[in-house]
Design brief:
- With about 650 residues, the protein is of the alpha/beta class.
- The protein has 26 helices and 16 strands.
- It has three domains: about 160 residues, Substrate Binding Domain Of Dnak, Chain:A, Domain 2, CATH 1.20.1270.30; about 150 residues, Rossmann fold (3-Layer(aba) Sandwich), CATH 3.40.50; about 230 residues, Rossmann fold (3-Layer(aba) Sandwich), CATH 3.40.50.
- Strands 6-5-4-7-8-9 form a six-stranded parallel β-sheet.
- Helix 4 runs antiparallel to helix 6, helix 10 crosses helix 15 and helix 18 packs parallel to helix 25.
- The chain is globular, with a radius of gyration of 24 Å.
- GO terms for molecular function: 4 iron, 4 sulfur cluster binding; anaerobic carbon-monoxide dehydrogenase activity; hydroxylamine reductase activity; nickel cation binding; peroxidase activity.
Length: about 650
């Protein structure tokens, strides 16, 4: 059992589930063995009904599909299809957010408002909307409409892609991968992978990159910016994480998924005095709304709502026996939730027409009735509290404090101060050798890997080598549960240079930057580092890297492609299913560097992966002729001495 997770709370719930005969994703994953070897290599094609076709990797069996397609093209086509699906998920999220802002601006929604007017005005100027002749609602409607146009745009270039440094844009234009419209690129990509279409592996991969760039510099950026405008740009906020945030004496509602529109309203309604009084009438002391996955990150960084766990803990939250309702919206929602919920009193509630689950109660979310729907859901959860079987309740004690909600906007102020906001201290820290560089740790969980192990191994190794870490999504969930989003973590895990900067500025060594669509914040931070100067004129020159060590979904494929195409070398594990094609593997791990200035690292050993990421940063530093690092990395003995010497609380700046 200990090889399942590094999270004690998760292990306790897995033992409980086994003892109560409840099957979880971990068990269902085991039942899939042995897996198809052809599929693992990417050499399986199901694009038409002449198949499935498979290519023999040893050269003794078929080397072409029934239509004559090669193994290289099959592997590339599978990646391209995956990237298009992932890009569509993030971009559809962005479209829904834009729709909600548009309706709010027209006064057609219930309970919503425009909270960040300053960011609205800045974005209006950026996208060419007159911000001086109308009220805020009219400006918001025009900005939302302008963003919605980006989805169906047929010609030209995406507006948000213009944020990229000039060298990056020139590279995209030369390779003809500058995205035009978000939907335009996804549809073209899906057309190209239809039977009888493109069979050139390099051309397929370039178009997959184009669709992915439409996600990273289109749909995801739209989602991030418009969510900030509508619900408020996050500021650093304290909260707690892990299954221990659930309470025996409270009604526990877990919200799970990715879109913030309904979850924000559920938190608001649950904190209302009327609902809390209803909870007391039903025997509970209070109502706790906690999150799973990226919905968790959304309500965490804006409302301080506790984070119950990441992707592989969605079923385990129910196994505590203390969850009255699990409310889900879209993406990363396991249909197995319905099976687990039936073993307890928990009500599974779906809210999107795009994500219905048999056995769940469905409340169709409509922004025009958002408050009413949220009240119905919270009321149903409160009423369910009396049905809780106390004999089945076991809430793990594990939980950790955290600080979340870092953005490009507030990092400016943390680094430079309110009256001199600047990225200069960050760049100077890198130039002077206090910081080796910055690594973005992002991604999912995968039941085929030990839950959270790769994240913890890699991040601890990076921190002791003076690497500042920024994180989003389920990786942020892992690192928050393990205490690395707490400023005090600098005394336990950081090298001397990183610790000096964190202590001076008052920030944790791992900065929570939001949900998985908020990887766009990381891109924007890189843009600001380039603008500040001194460490390169292009993102590909910066001492930065990316890492998705427990990847799981099509969205991860899209993210990986747009991050690398943006000039950021990225570790990705489990690797794309490309090992059946030497040409595709060589292109992604080497060839992309010549075209985009970055490449993929496919490495299953997390300690080795951390070493390769550190090597990338060192190579970038050497190319920029930066000063050598001021301090050697801490070994285990030195780290223990530092921990004992400096174990005292620190204020958040």
């Amino acid at each position: 059992m200990s090889d399942r997770s590094v999270d004690k709370a998760a292990l306790n719930m897995l033992r409980k589930a086994k003892s109560e005969g409840v099957r979880t994703a971990f068990d269902r994953s085991d039942l899939q063995e042995p897996r198809c070897g052809f599929g693992e290599l990417g050499l399986c094609c199901q694009q038409c009904y002449m198949g499935p076709c498979r290519i023999d990797p040893f050269g003794k069996g078929p080397q072409y599909g029934a239509c004559g397609i090669s193994g290289d093209a099959i592997v590339a086509r599978n990646i391209a299809r995956s990237a298009a699906i992932g890009a569509s998920a993030h971009s559809d999220h962005g479209r829904d957010v834009a729709d909600n802002l548009y309706l709010t601006a027209l006064g057609k929604t219930q309970g919503y408002e425009i909270k960040d007017q300053r960011k609205l005005l800045a974005l209006a100027e950026e996208v060419g909307v007159d911000a001086f002749s109308s009220d805020f609602n009219m400006i918001a409607a025009k900005v939302a409409d302008k963003c919605l146009e980006q989805f169906g745009q047929q010609k030209g270039e995406l507006l948000f892609a213009q944020r990229a440094p000039e060298k990056q844009k020139a590279r995209w234009r030369n390779l003809k991968v500058m995205p035009r419209g978000i939907d335009r690129e996804i549809v073209e990509m899906l057309h190209m992978v239809h039977m009888g279409m493109d069979a050139d592996y390099h051309n397929l991969l370039l178009h997959a990159i184009k669709a992915a760039l439409g996600d990273g510099w289109g749909g995801s950026m739209i989602a991030t910016d418009l969510t900030d405008i509508q619900f408020g740009t996050p500021t650093p906020i304290r909260s707690t994480a892990n299954l221990g945030v659930l309470r025996e004496d409270a009604v526990n509602i877990v919200v799970h998924g990715h879109e913030p529109t309904l979850s924000e309203m559920i938190v608001k309604v649950a904190r209302d005095s009327e609902m809390r009084a209803l909870a007391r009438d039903n025997g509970a002391e209070d109502i706790v709304v906690a999150g799973i996955c990226c919905t968790a990150n959304e309500i965490l960084m804006r409302q301080g709502a506790p984070l119950a766990g990441n992707f592989l803990q969605q079923e385990l939250a129910i196994v505590t026996g203390a969850v009255e309702a699990m409310v889900v919206d879209v993406q990363c929602i396991m249909p197995g939730l319905s099976q687990v919920a039936q073993c307890y009193h928990t009500k599974l509630i779906t809210t999107s027409k795009k994500a219905r689950i048999p056995g769940a109660v469905h409340y169709q979310f409509e922004p025009e009735k958002a408050v009413d729907i949220a009240k119905k859901i919270v009321s149903e959860a409160v009423g369910n509290y009396r049905r809780r079987d106390r004999a089945k309740v076991e809430i793990p004690k594990e939980k950790n404090d955290l600080v979340a909600g870092f953005t490009v906007e507030n990092i400016f102020y943390h680094l430079g101060g309110k009256f001199r906001p600047s990225f200069k201290p960050l760049n100077e820290g890198i130039i002077q050798g206090r910081l080796r560089g910055v690594v973005g740790i992002v991604g999912c969980n995968n039941a085929r890997l030990t839950h959270d192990h790769n994240y913890m191994t890699i991040v601890k190794e990076l921190l002791r080598h003076d690497v500042l870490v920024v994180t989003t999504g389920c990786s942020a969930g892992c690192l928050s549960k393990q205490g690395l989003l707490n400023p005090e973590a600098m005394f336990t895990w950081c090298g001397n240079g990183l610790r000096e900067i964190c202590e001076a500025v008052g920030i944790p060594p791992v900065l929570h930057m939001g949900s998985c669509v908020d990887n766009s914040r990381i891109l924007n931070a890189c843009i600001e580092m380039v603008k500040e100067g001194g460490i390169g004129t292009d993102i590909s020159q910066l001492p930065v890297a990316g890492c998705a060590p427990e990847a799981m979904s099509d969205k991860a494929v899209s993210i990986g492609l747009y991050v690398v195409a943006s000039g950021i070398t990225t570790h990705f594990n489990p690797p794309f299913r490309v090992h059946g094609s030497k040409k595709v593997l060589e292109y992604l791990s080497e060839g992309m560097k010549a075209e985009f200035g970055a490449h993929f690292i496919f490495e299953s050993d997390p300690k080795k992966a951390a070493g390769k990421l550190i090597k990338v940063l060192d190579e970038k530093r050497e190319a920029l002729k930066l000063k050598p690092m001021l301090y050697p990395p801490l070994d285990g003995e030195s780290q223990q001495k530092v921990t004992e010497k400096n174990a005292h609380p620190v204020a958040v700046g």
